[in-house]
Write the structure tokens for this entry.
Amino acid sequence: MTATTSTRAPTGRRRRLFILLRVLISVAALGGLLWWLEPAAMLDAVGPLAPGWVLAGLAISVPQVFVSAWRWRLTAHRLGLDLSLGRAFREYYLATFLNQVLPGGVGGDLSRAWRHATDAADVRGAWHAVLIERVSGQVALIVLAVVALLSSPVLLHSATRFPAAPTLQLAGVIAAFGVAIAWYSRPALTRLWRDLRQSMLARTVLPQQLLASFAVVASYIAVYFCSARAIGVPLPATALLPLIPMVLLAMALPLSVAGWGVREGAAAGLWLLAGLAPAQGMAISVAYGALVFVSSLPGAVMLVFGGLGVAPREGGVGQGPQ
């Protein structure tokens, strides 16, 4: 057995173990929530299905993917990489579907980064473009989650009841790991920081990044709102909208399959903190997950007809974002 083979075997086993762990997290979380809330309570929390709201949620998902693809293309072009808008749109749909079916919720992003890197002039830049584009979206989501928390007196009061010590301890551990990683791979992080400043933080591009990212997050919130209305939940918008960004923030953690289980647990907990029925929060979250999966199915079509091979090269280098 060669050294390469012996190295790959443990790596493959670890990867399969992580995949199995994420599947188990989703199954265990959903099972625990169903045991706690009971399916009958979830059914009581919903009303008749409203097809118009389902169609509205699906319609919103199309410009959502388009703006996300435009943001990726903008980031790539700022790094001097060739990426046409048509290719970015197709690749983003494919990645969206893969994120729904692969454990961790980032497999699709890794796929589009790899496919772009295979024919890019700058391989590391292609990977950085996807990473930075996702960071831009997470920044917008965090900002809106903080605004939502501050705008909800009930949630803000509930949050202040939790002791600060565990939170500070967790922040300290994360900071320590961050410093260790930065010290270990300073050259790589130096390049990443340079690309981040060039493609996201520069004054000429930051407004475009923020506008695109806030538009994408707003579309996520709108789809979640449509999901609630689609299953007949009459909760007023003033009570529902502040809860949504924090549920979306929880499902951004790559701990499960497409956020399943983690998202529902966060929704049930937030509904409970807000003085609402946890079963209602979980029901809306399940409806949202189903709606997002259906909206990602164009990516499945692209997978069937295009596969996961190297995507064809399109356009020419030097074409700026349009």
Summary: Residues 35-306 form one domain. The chain has 15 helices and no strands. The radius of gyration is 21 Å.
